[in-house]
Amino acid sequence: MLSRAARSASRTLVPAPGSRGSRQKHSLPDLPYDYGALEPHISAQIMQLHHSKHHATYVNNLNAVEEKYLEALEKGDVTTQVALQPGLKFNGGGHINHSIFWTNLSPKGGGEPKGELLEAIKRDFGSFDKFKEKLTAVSVGVQGSGWGWLGFNKDQGRLQIAACSNQDPLQGTTGLIPLLGIDVWEHAYYLQYKNVRPDYLKAIWNVINWENVTERYMACKK
């Protein structure tokens, strides 16, 4: 079963007309571990800034944009609704992506997945090592800021690797259901790895929470 944070982050971002009074604001999810729990692979300083500053900013901005969007809906102001769409996408995507990312990591992570997920990886990529190499390469190759993803193509019943720019959400951009996301914005690694993104990507495999990724995969198949 997916975590409460993951479920809440995946709910509809734009409220229905007339629901302003009862709209529930988005909130910053708690981490399931301490800021320093992922050391030495990801430092406590990075985790604290990434979670309490960057993710919190996406949440606060999303709530503010939704308020303006709802006002525009109630006024029938289509011009403003259209103008607010980029802000909804960026801040909503940032909230969704990070809520997945935190659960994809664990101090007890690393190694390889087991069971059906491992078999699916072998089927769709040839081997776990080939999958790891491909997702790493795609993540290294993101130009500027963005994310590398392992997703599930529900129509084809297969795993796929994709990259998204900035905070574009995987499902809204590609139709793939997100299973594992790797944040390659510089704020995710610069304080520790400087501008050497490949070193960060090599380290992050030591804290991937395969139990969480497997939960997401099994939920997709139902």
Task: Provide structural commentary.
- The protein is mainly α and 222 residues long.
- It has a single domain, classed as Iron/manganese superoxide dismutase, C-terminal domain (minor pseudopilin epsh fold, 3-Layer(bab) Sandwich).
- Helix content is 53%, strand content 10%.
- Strands 2-1-3 form a 3-stranded antiparallel beta sheet.
- Helix 2 runs antiparallel to helix 3.
Short key terms for the protein model shown above:
single chain; 222 residues; mainly alpha; minor pseudopilin epsh fold; 3 strands; 53% helix; disordered N terminus
What is the secondary structure topology, with strand pairs?
Layout: H1 4-9, H2 44-75, H3 78-103, H4 115-125, H5 128-140, E1 146-153, E2 158-165, H6 170-174, E3 177-183, H7 190-193, H8 197-204, H9 210-221
Antiparallel strand pairs: 1-2, 1-3
Helix pairs in contact: 2-3
Question: What is the count of helical runs?
Answer: 9
Q: If strands are numbered along the chain, what order do they take across the biggest sheet?
A: 2-1-3
Largest sheet: 3 strands, antiparallel
CATH arch. level architecture: 3-Layer(bab) Sandwich
Number of domains: 1
Q: What is the N-to-C order of secondary-structure elements (H for helix, E for strand)?
A: HHHHHEEHEHHH
Helix content: 40-55%
Offer a concise description of the structure:
This protein is mainly α and 222 residues long. The protein has nine helices and three strands; from the N terminus they run H-H-H-H-H-E-E-H-E-H-H-H.
